[in-house]
Every structure is written in C-alpha cells, then in structure tokens.
C-alpha cells in the first residue's frame, strides 16, 4: 500500500512539474479567473519557452554574393572550360577554342584571371568570353564574345598581327581538317568519349544520371551534326588520314623555326595550333584510341613547339 | 578498263552544278587520255554505294569525292596519273593547305550564292536542278540540297539572304533575345528591312566574306599561271571547280560574280581562260542527257556518256526513300551517317569502306522491305476485315453455367 502511494506521488511530481498546471489539475471544477486564462493563453508553455530561450540555436555565416555578382571587377576575367581543382587555376583549358584565346591573351601579355564556366553561362551560348575590367565599381563592363577578342586585345594596346601570305590557307587546315578529326576523336569514338570527354564535360556538370545521359547524347549529336555538314558519311579513318596530312603540312611549314612565319613571339596562328597539340599531347588525359596522339608524336618539331609554349607561358 | 566518272549534271553552261564534280572533271581531263574515261551525268548519289558525287567507278570499286579520286588515281597508276608529282615538300604542304582552304571557305560562299539567297535559288538554281534530275528526285533533292547548304553556311550569319526564313523568325525574335544584352544581339532581318537599309549592311558583311576568300587566292596565284610551281597541280583543278561556279552563272543577285569581276580582275581572267580551256564550249544540257539528237559529239571536248535509264525497282526505291527520309525519328535512323570502326581484314581502305557501306545499305534495304510489306499486309487485312470479306473466327458463346447453390438453391429454384 505504501509502495503504491509512493509510486503515485512520484508520478504526480513527475507529471505535473509545473506548479501552475498542478494547481489547475487539483481544482478542475473551479471556473478560471479571466486574468489567469489570458496569461495562460498568451504566455508560452514552459517546455516551448525553454526551447526558445536557447535561440538562436545556430548562427549561419553570411550568404555569399550571388554568382553573377562580379567579384574581381578590376581584373579581366576569361570564362573558359577548366577543371575545378584549385591548384589548376591558371592551367590550360581542356577545350581547344578556349585554350586558343587563353594562349592568345597570354602571348600578348594581357593580365587576366580565368574562371571555370560552361556554355550555359555565356551570353552567346559558347565559351570562351571575356569580361573586361570595369572602372566603374557599380557597373560591370559588357562581355566580349569570342569573335571580338582579337579586336579587343588591339584596343587594349596589344599589337596588331600582320596576316602572312599563306596564313589563311593553313588556318583552314587547323580550323577545318584538324577540328573535324578532333570532333571524331573526342566525341564520336566511343572509347575516347567514355575515357576523356565524359569526366571533363559530362560528369563535372551534374551528378544526376538522367542529366548526364542527355548531356552526353547532346554533345555527341552536336559533333555528328557538325561533321555531317561537310561529310556525307562520317568515316573516322578518312578524317584521321586527312588530319595526318594536315599535321605533316604544318610540320613542314614550321620547319626549324621557333614560331610560325618566322616570328620572334608567338601569335594567333601559334595559339590555334597549340590549342589542339596541347590537349592531344596532355599526359593527364587517358586516350583509349590514341590515333591523333600517335600521329602528332611523329612530328618532333610540333611536339617541341607545344613544349616551348607550355614552358614559356603555362609553367606557373 | 574505261573509268566512269559519275557527276551531278550540267548547269549554267558548265559540265556540272557542283564544284567538287567540276574539279574532278578538270582533274581527269588533265590527267587521263580522253579514251580512258567516260563522263556520266547521273545526278543521283545512290548510283554508288558511297552515296556521294562525284564518284569514280573502276570495275567493281567506287571512289567518291575529289580528294579520294586524286589519291585513288595516283595509287592505281603507280604515280603516272598524278598531277602533283612535280611538287616539292613545301609545295605539297601548301597544296594540302590550299585544298582545305578552298573546300572549307569556298563551299559556304557558293551555298550562300546558289542556295541560300532566295532570289538566286528560286530564279535559277531550282530550274537548273529540275532540268538534270529525274522524277522523283526532282521533287525532293533540291529542297534537300538547299537545307544542307543553309546548315553549312549558317556560321557566316547571313541567313537573312533567305527571305522565307526571315519571315518565320520574326515571331520568335522578341522572346528569345530578351535575356541577351543589347550589345551582343544580332539583329534579325525582316522582309521590309531586307529590302531597305539592311541590304547595305548585308553587303558589307558579304564583301568581308568574299574578300576573305578571294584575297588569299589572289596572293597565292600572283601573276603566275598556276598556284604552285610552274606546272598544273590538283589545287589548280580544285580552284577551277569552285571559281568556275562562282564566275559563270548568270544569277538574279550576281554579287559574287560582280565582286570577282570588279575587284579581282586577275583571278577573273585566270578562271575565264581556264573554263574555256578545260570545259570547252558551253554545255547543252539536253544534248548531254541525250534528250535531243545532235551531231555534236565531235565538238564536245569531254567524253560524255548518257546515264542509263533507271529501272522500275530503282524508281520505286527512290520514291520510298524520299518518303521515309523526312520522317523525324525513322528518317535519321534510316540515313547512314556513321560507318564505325573498320573491321580488321586484308582489304585496302577504299574497298573496306565500300564493303561496309554496301553492307549497311543492304541491311537497310531489308529493313525497308520488311517494313513496307508489313504495312501492306496490315493494310490489306484491315481493309478485308472492314469490308467483312474476312471474319475473325468467333468462339460460339457458351451458355453461362449458373452457380450451384446446392440443395438450398434447389429449394429456392436457383439451381
């Protein structure tokens, strides 16, 4: 009997820890006074109050500025395809057209900072584009698309390059023949696509399987469409064969010179070629079907040309 | 063995309407004795398994494209049929570079001039194509060629020469460009704008593109007779092909011809003499296709031979293909776009490619026949069923067996 009473009091003392509540419990039939009811209505119940007294539970750090807010307004920023590793901030891009302009700006001694980005961020729908330094801190300068970078460099005091007699013809060799072979090499060759293009262009964009699959399909389809513009049927071997001839011609054109057309400093043409040779010879990329790499390695002077530019401008 | 060169048919007084075909004609004429080859204006890419013109037939093997034809002739003749044999190393490099320059820059310019520009396409090119194509290709191929030309030249940003497209794009304009900063927007031309001041703007851009193409050529040619060295090479033939097609046609919008005549008189003179020398007198389409009898074979400098009549199955095949190819998913699957990796074997490259393509084509034909016969059978059976001539064997309705409720059922009369 004693035990039971003891248990009861225990339960009571535990269950009605709040004296106010205990009182109401003891006098259930007595009508509540208006003052008491308003306090009980408006004041918080004790446990909730305890919780709130602990606030703020955690103070979050300040939100970062939105991504589009310019952070380095006083610097030129080149938006390119780049790996996100922090130590590779100044590394050469893995996309030929981005690398071409990255190298071109470096050749002309224009100070700039690179920022990893993707096509969706570009106002023209294609990388690279350049956001020039702005003098007015409240307004950013308007972006310079790829086609106008050369003109912009001249406006910044870079020297205008003379066009050499055969430069146009050889440029067509890079932009047409070498590019076609490159498109096949990277995107349409199944093994190379899985080994190289997938981690660089697809896996870095999203972690969702569906997005990745559709992006991979889009990339390969775009490459196929591009090749079908000039070829009736896409024949990888024929593209490689023409690329080999192109490399042969470019190697003959370079001869024993340091840079193309007997220049003392590299120019746009060197940048265009370097954009492909650097990526094709890059040791970090693991090509499964290294047709172009093997073809390029047979031309010692082109390999040295790439190494020379790499040492001179990307050695940081 | 007489080699057969199959090309797109003659137009604009020239032996072919396609620059690569003209170049191939020029090359063969310069390289081979006249009795060693025949020129066939078949105007049908399906004539060879490679699906491409110009195509050279040597017995059973086919080679397509100017570049491949040059290479093939060099290989089979041990270097005898090779215009490039006198070139030294650096000239050979120039030759490769100039070839790719002509192909990659000349073709878009021709596309703009002959196909994209609405005036020229509707006023000249379509008629010219209509004369050389046979039914049903004459209904589908011109549109197909124009669509391809538009794709090839869209990077030049002059699609506004095409008035039809300018009308269609007008509505999309406002929505799409809302997000793009003003400085980067490309103004889209409208019809009225096109006729007015934008014509001037187009002219500026056109002039830039034209000079990008002609100036390097003028520099390379100089005052010489040939591009490389003092003898003819394959580049001269290729340049003849492209420039002839720019110089010869009388078009409603003759900006390309005018530019060549007014700004680059040297080049203009060079191509005029070349055309007369290589292709001879203006080509009469009807005579070449043997629609018209004439005693002209003596005065023709090229060994023309009329294309054989197409058999009924070939025509049916062409009709079927032209029906299937515009269907969105089926069409793209149906067209052969990629020949994949070469299979290891002892065939040489030309043969391997031809064999692969022929195999793909055969497989595709089987699919098409299966598809066509399935459709036909389904249609026939459906019609017969609809008309009631054919009846599905119906099961006789069996009387429903009532549930048995046993004795209680029997009591209530339910059994």
SSE arrangement:
The complex is a heterodimer of chains A (316) and B (415).
Chain A lengths: L1 H14 L3 H8 L7 H9 L3 H8 L23 E4 L15 H12 L5 E4 L12 E3 L12 E2 L3 H7 L11 H22 L1 H13 L6 H22 L5 H19 L13 H14 L9 H7 L2 H14 L3
Parallel strand pairs in A: 1-2
Antiparallel strand pairs in A: 1-3, 3-4
Chain B lengths: L2 E4 L12 H13 L5 E4 L14 E4 L2 E4 L1 H11 L12 H28 L1 H15 L4 H17 L9 H15 L13 H5 L2 H24 L12 H14 L7 H9 L1 H15 L5 H4 L23 H13 L3 H7 L14 H39 L18 H7 L3
Parallel strand pairs in B: 1-2
Antiparallel strand pairs in B: 1-3, 3-4
Describe this structure in words.
The complex is a heterodimer of chains A (316) and B (415). Chain A has 316 residues and is mostly helical. Chain A has 2 domains: 77-155, 3-Layer(aba) Sandwich (Glutaredoxin); 167-313. In chain A, 53% of the residues lie in helices and 4% in strands. Chain A is built from 13 helices and 4 strands. Chain A has helices at residues 2-15, 19-26, 34-42, 46-53, 96-107, 149-155, 167-188, 190-202, 209-230, 236-254, 268-281, 291-297, 300-313, and strands at residues 77-80, 113-116, 129-131, 144-145. A 4-stranded mixed beta sheet of chain A has the order 2-1-3-4, with helices on one face. The longest helix of chain A is centred in the middle third of the chain and has 22 residues, at 167-188. Chain B has 415 residues and is mainly α. Chain B has 16 helices and 4 strands. In chain B, strands 2-1-3-4 form a 4-stranded mixed beta sheet. In chain B, strand 1, helix 1 and strand 2 form a beta-alpha-beta unit. In chain B, helix 3 crosses helix 5 (137-153). The longest helix of chain B is centred in the C-terminal third of the chain and has 39 residues, at 349-387. Mean pLDDT of chain B is 81; it is low at 166-173 and 189-195. At the A-B interface, helix 7, helix 9 and helix 10 of A face helix 3, helix 5, helix 8 and helix 15 of B. Chain B: The chain crosses the membrane at residues 366-386. Chain B: InterPro entries: Glutathione-S-Trfase_C_sf, Metaxin_GST, Mito_Protein_Transport_Metaxin, Sam37/metaxin_N. Chain B: One of its GO terms (cellular component) is SAM complex. Chain B: Keywords: Membrane, Mitochondrion, Mitochondrion outer membrane, Protein transport, Transmembrane, Transmembrane helix, Transport. Chain B: Residues 214-271 form the Metaxin glutathione S-transferase domain.
